[in-house]
UniProtKB/TrEMBL annotation:
This is Ubiquitin carboxyl-terminal hydrolase. The gene is Usp3. Belongs to the peptidase C19 family. The keyword Hydrolase applies. Its EC number is 3.4.19.12. It comes from the Eukaryota. PROSITE patterns: USP_1, USP_2, USP_3. It holds the Pfam family UCH. It is an enzyme of class 3 (hydrolase). The keyword Protease applies. Transmembrane segments: none annotated. Keywords: Hydrolase, Protease, Thiol protease, Ubl conjugation pathway. GO terms for cellular component: nucleus.
Amino acid sequence: YRCDDFVVNDTKLGLVQKVREHLQNLENSAFTSDRHRKRKLLENSSLNSKLLKVNGSTNALCATGLRNLGNTCFMNAILQSLSNIQQFCCYFKELPAVELRNGKTAGRRTYHTRSQGDNNVSLVEEFRKTLCALWQGSQTAFSPESLFYVVWKIMPNFRGYQQQDAHEFMRYLLDHLHLELQGGFNGVSRSVILQENASLSASNKCCINGASTVVTAIFGGILQNEVNCLICGTESRKFDPFLDLSLDIPSQFRNKRTKNQENGPMCTLRDCLRSFTDLEELDETELYMCHKCKKKQKSTKKFWIQKLPKVLCLHLKRFHWTAYLRNKVDTYVEFPLRGLDMKCYLLEPENSGPESCLYDLAAVVVHHGSGVGSGHYTAYAAHEGRWFHFNDSTVTLTDEETVVKAKAYILFYVERQAKSGSDKL
């Protein structure tokens, strides 16, 4: 097993496969035995056991961490966040598994994608296997080695073991999942798979780069971009699909570092959203080519949200370039756990229902440190009513008070399906 060699011809009872699975379990347990003692999952300061009372019975907490393969915390934080977006995660976990049963490749894909050779890798399959490994409770940490190999293969930007930007990785990951699903998966048409999931109706799809997939059905929204020429008044409108919104932290808040600091007003998520959607006059470097004036002119622009997604992903732009280096904006931004109301940013709010514009927080990615090429990423996510902190292979129970103090980098909000309170941002 360690020299990555395989027996090709299995028995009818699949005994060789059972040996492989047993060896894999041994390797997992050996790797984590020395860390097991450190991984006490505490619900509060008085809880000193991994056992929790759930529905009257005692159950072990089944959260699974992701091993750091060498500065891969940026990937782990995104994977843990996506795994806790239920509708998105369930879609992939319900996909049929890829099983290669012919010739020399039989059985190898189970653990070592690299054994398949360079021309036969599937991001969807490795993403599916990683999601299936999380929350099943059979191990304290899972190694996303095969997924990382596929990432190296199809996303050259992420080769090597240097720290990467978690938001950039998320965009590449979603884009490549979208493209691969467009081409069909495991011999099953993408459209057939979507049709089988009744919750992803055609009316809720947003097409980005071709046909719709679960990626655009869940994360896809549409912006209306209005540009007005200040010389002749000509208005230009276009619709731009999006998978996430990148929000500036307004400059007047950039010196406020912590939640409890009292010098000046607190920066809120509403301030960032307002800055994104407010009317803005473009500067000299962004002159608009007016078709009526036949030349570049000064103009204003404004964004409206024409269609909200099922999962609203908000990226706070904490990294910006100066003349020589990329600095981090370390400002604390206050964000709601429940009831984020997006109605005032809609192009046609009158056409939306009272609950359709309300969002509840599902996950938060946090960057710790001073620079994009350094530091560390962790994630907070809600699962079955409880909040967890995912720090690579370590997973701990936490509380809402800790989550709201986090300096968020990426926020994942899920559309509220039913009335569950009237608190709003």
